[in-house]
Specification:
CATH architecture of chain B: 4-Layer Sandwich
Shape of chain A: globular
Largest sheet of chain B: 7 strands, antiparallel
Oligomer: heterodimer
Number of strands of chain B: 18
Number of domains of chain A: 2
Number of helices of chain B: 11
CATH class of chain B: Alpha Beta
Structural class of chain B: alpha+beta
Strand order of the largest sheet of chain A: 11-21-20-18-17-14-13-12
Helix content of chain B: 25-40%
CATH class of the largest domain in chain A: Alpha Beta
Strand order of the largest sheet of chain B: 8-3-10-1-16-15-17
CATH superfamily of the largest domain in chain A: Aldolase class I
Distance between the termini of chain B: 57 Å
Helix content of chain A: 25-40%
Radius of gyration of chain A: 24 Å
CATH architecture of the largest domain in chain A: Alpha-Beta Barrel
Radius of gyration of chain B: 20 Å
Order of helices and strands of chain B: EEHEEHEEHEEHEEEEHHHHHEEEEHEEH
CATH superfamily of chain B: Aminohydrolase, N-terminal nucleophile (Ntn) domain
Strand content of chain A: 15-25%
Largest interface: A-B, 58 and 61 residues
């Protein structure tokens, strides 16, 4: 006799159908990629299997008569502060199947979110706020190593540079799109990101899944990634973008490599990644050519050699305890930018234990890294790019005031194209057509729609950032960088404020 | 007595005035007093000050340190440091007069000094080393000696400032008895931390002196940037960063004055994008490299050095600044009236555009130790930061 599957006894969600509204059009059956809704031909009625529901709300959103309501299942366990339903159900799952608990997106535990304990400043009387509707307001940002000073000469009565600047990447808005591989997300989303990056004057990141042939034309807005699995990596790929990102780690799963379940490896993905159809693409935890900091230097310069020093090399790490020292080593190893991905950083697939319990919050990491690089006199040698849990334009402003040059957004961009945070990307069945490669499902999100939504989001954020800068009385983003004066803490301890170098509100 | 423990950045609105004679002719203090007092309404009695260039010809080769001390014990500590680190050629109390409205005035002493380097080094040192030595000496005293501050430290120049209206401060320091080829003055309207003598303008480092009307919204960024180069902002006011930025950009990095001003108040990207290639590269580089030096927020500043007077507005001109010329004289002030009261018929009067510096230098060779920054000069040679400034051992590797 098969053993009972305890985990199926207690569904997370309840599917409720308002029968007076239902016209039995069967749209829900078609929409649900998890097989929750079933048409019972015999009884001529619709059935729903709650235990399969992931809470993506696709059926509810698409139902023409709004006959469906998806809510948390009211069935509950006896209250217990320690053994919450989440822990109980996780144990059932593992007892049923063995193995590692998988999930997606970023950390779901309610750690203190430092962004929410920092408030911003605005001008009153003693200096005037600047109105971005009437005055120029500048967000242009340059990524890459900068000299500490300039040498000027006078030729024919005019001043000019004696030595030109090294190659830098110019961003019109300090928000870039984080690494999300083709495979983890659909080609349509990639196309949308690439186009949006081009029109916004920023960059998107291929992730470690290689670059689809149709996206080479967006090269000047592309960061290509070189991760431990080296999927889809060849010299044309390295030369395709303006920067190469060496991914050492990811905020959602520090210390382990990427996961792309075989279910998501279709024909096209297999071509781009250069792996067989249907095979799991599991990147090793370390780069097998980087076992120490000098090996990283070796790889940075191998990539620079391969691309004739025309491309910048970023190094991405997850924010871990010793992040400041590691970042310093990375800058000394020759990286042009350090990407720090915090505890709240998202993913397409990660073990729950990693996503929720490993790494440190990005706010503390930015401040620590910025401080360390300044103390060592090497801050100008590399840009700091922060990512992980940036939810709105105020978070962007705070990250920059803490010392970041620019930020990456990932989850926010996916929510912009319809993601409802059901956290099941790893199944490859995303009913919204985002984190899937199923040819039927990806049709639900055409590239044009993806482009428009992502473009609108960042455009809106850029406007808000301009408004906030203007309110602070500054008209250029460089005057915000590392400007702790613009931050005040609300409800933080002395130690936290010391690390963030922010005063408490009222001080 | 002083609110030294409240590490709060000061904010203020203000009136400013400046006079320069390009032939180096000495002008009596009455003129500048009249000009700044004309802008009485721009202050509230909580701070005023004067900077005068050319006032110590008999000590022209010595750094004139004006020290302000809360009490004798603070002064003793300063003297101990000076005895250790400098050769004091001459010292005297700064002459003052009793003014009824001025209470609790600190002690003011001036020292004329030369750096005392380690043995053997003395012979090989040039002006740059001496200047740097004095900068770090001033930083040291200001940071470490409680209740004492070096308020000016240039050669043949000095700053006189305190809490009061400009006429009171002028009377207190007997400004009318000095003659200078450059004068600047300030009338202050602070909006917090009143009663702090060190918070009055001008602010100085070496012979740079700054008077400032405005609030620097980028203070936090500027301060952190300056800390990278060893400057410590101790005077609790945003104007201090302007003095240090000028010292860094012009004296240490050797930027031509015009470009240093452009680093502080840069053109907008939309203007830069329209420039010819070479100019565009230059301005892009200035903004990329000196982004953290941008003075953002409303300001009109006058800054002077042994050789020139410069007026500069913020990049959108949120504070007033008017300039005028007559003969060998140039005048700058917050209000035209302040100029006309001492020069009723100028040849030319104009309001400088946002971010466009007005640079007036003395004619060549008219004063001792004259400096000119129009051309810029090679950057001070510094060891690579990676090699000398490392306080931490990088990641262990084996």
């Amino acid at each position: 006799m098969a053993s009972p599957q305890f985990s199926s006894f207690y569904p997370d969600f309840l599917v409720q159908r308002i029968w007076e509204r239902c016209i039995k059009c069967k749209r829900c059956v078609k929409e649900c990629s998890y097989g929750v809704h079933v048409w019972d031909e015999k009884k001529k009625t619709l059935l729903a299997n709650d235990s399969k529901c992931v809470g993506c709300h696709r059926c509810e959103a698409m139902c023409p008569t709004k006959a469906l309501v998806i809510s948390r299942h009211p069935s509950d366990f006896r209250e217990h502060a320690l053994w919450t339903p989440w822990h109980i159900k996780n144990i059932y799952k593992q007892a049923d199947q063995g193995g590692v608990l998988l999930t997606s997106t970023g950390c779901a535990q309610p750690y203190k979110n430092y962004f929410d304990h920092l408030v911003l400043d605005a001008c009153q009387v003693t200096n005037p706020p600047i109105d971005p509707l009437r005055e120029p307001m500048e967000l242009r940002t340059f990524i890459g190593p900068k000299p500490e000073s300039l040498e000027i000469e006078r030729v024919n009565g005019k001043f000019r540079l004696k030595k030109k600047l090294p190659p830098l990447i110019q961003l019109e808005v300090p928000i870039m799109f984080a690494a999300m591989s083709y495979g983890a997300i659909s080609l349509h989303v990639h196309q949308g990101l690439a186009r949006a990056a081009r029109d916004l004057g920023t960059l998107y990141n291929t992730g470690e899944g290689g670059l689809h042939a149709s996206l080479y034309e967006y090269g000047s807005n592309t960061i290509v990634q070189c991760a431990s699995g080296r999927f889809g990596l060849h010299v044309d790929y390295l030369n395709a973008g303006v920067a190469i990102e060496i991914k050492i780690g990811q905020g959602a799963k520090p210390g382990i490599g990427g996961h792309l379940p075989g279910e998501k490896v279709t024909e096209e993905i297999s071509k781009t990644r250069m792996i067989p159809v249907g095979s799991d693409a599991l990147s090793p935890a370390p780069h097998h050519d980087i076992y120490s900091i000098e090996d990283l230097r070796g790889l940075i310069f191998a990539l620079k050699e391969a691309t004739e020093y025309k491309k910048l090399v970023f190094v991405k790490i997850s924010a871990v305890h010793n992040v400041a020292a590691i970042a310093s080593g990375i800058v000394r190893a020759g990286a042009d930018a350090v990407v720090i991905d915090g505890l709240k950083g998202g993913t397409g697939a990660a073990p729950v234990m990693f996503r929720d319990y490993i790494g440190i919050p990005i706010e503390l990491a930015i401040s620590a890294v910025d401080k360390r690089l300044r103390e060592e006199g090497i801050r100008h040698r590399a840009s700091i790019i922060a990512s992980g849990g940036i939810r709105n334009s105020a978070d962007v402003v705070k990250a920059i005031a803490l010392g970041a040059d620019a930020v990456y957004i990932g989850t926010a961009a996916l929510i912009a194209v319809g993601c409802t945070m059901c956290q099941r990307c790893y199944t490859g069945k995303c009913p919204w057509g985002i984190a899937t490669n199923n040819p039927e499902l990806i049709k639900r999100l055409p590239p044009d729609v993806a482009y428009e939504k992502i473009y609108n989001l960042v455009k809106g954020w850029a406007l808000e950032i301009k408004e906030m800068l203007g309110a602070m009385g500054i008209n250029s983003i460089e005057s915000l960088k590392g400007n702790r004066d613009k931050l005040r803490a609300v409800g933080l301890t002395e130690k936290e404020m010391e690390i963030l170098e922010a005063k408490h509100a009222g001080e | 007595m002083w609110l030294l423990n409240e590490k709060i950045k000061e904010m203020s609105g203000c009136g400013i005035a400046g006079i320069i004679n390009v032939k180096g002719e000495l002008v009596p203090g009455d003129l500048i007093i009249k000009s700044i007092c004309c802008q009485y309404e721009r202050g509230n009695g909580l701070g005023a000050g004067f900077a005068a260039y050319g006032i110590y010809p008999e000590h022209k080769d010595y750094y004139a340190l004006h020290v302000m001390a809360q009490d004798k014990s603070a002064l003793e500590k300063v003297e101990e440091i000076l005895a250790h680190k400098t050769f004091v050629n001459y010292k005297e109390p700064i002459p003052t007069k009793k003014v009824k409205t001025i209470k609790n005035a600190p002690l003011f002493i001036r020292y004329f000094v030369k750096p005392k380097f380690d043995e053997g080094y003395q012979m090989v040192c040039g002006e740059d080393e001496e200047d740097n030595y004095i900068v770090s000496l001033v930083m040291d005293i200001n940071e470490k000696v409680e209740g004492a501050y070096v308020i000016s430290s240039g050669k043949n120049m000095g700053v006189f400032k305190g809490v009061g209206f400009p006429d009171e401060i002028a009377e207190f320091f007997r400004i009318d008895e000095y003659k200078a080829f450059i004068w600047t003055a300030h009338n202050r309207f602070p909006t917090n931390t009143p009663g702090w003598w060190g918070g009055a303008h001008p602010f100085t480092i070496l012979d740079w002196s700054i008077v400032h009307n405005g609030e620097i919204s980028s203070y936090g960024t500027n301060k952190r940037y300056l800390e990278l180069f060893g400057y410590k902002c101790t005077l609790l006011t945003d104007t201090e960063v302007v003095a240090y930025l000028l010292d860094l950009l012009i004296r240490r990095h050797g930027l031509p004055l015009q470009l240093a001003c452009k680093a502080l108040a840069p053109p907008f990207w939309m203007e830069i994008d329209e420039m010819e290639e070479e100019e565009r590269e230059l301005y892009t580089a200035i903004r990329v490299v000196y982004g953290s030096a941008v003075l953002n927020g409303p300001f009109a500043i006058l800054f002077a050095y042994n050789g020139g007077l410069v007026g500069l507005n913020d990049r959108v001109k949120l504070r007033p600044l008017v300039c005028a010329k007559k003969g060998d004289f140039y005048y700058m002030a917050s209000e035209e009236a302040a100029i006309r009261t001492i020069c009723p018929d100028p040849e030319k009067v104009w309001a400088p555009k946002a971010g466009e510096p007005v640079i007036v230098e003395l004619e060549k060779g008219v004063i001792p130790n004259q400096r000119s920054y129009i051309e810029g000069r090679p950057k001070e040679v510094e060891e690579d930061a990676l090699r000398i400034k490392c306080q931490y051992i990088p990641l262990q590797s084996s």
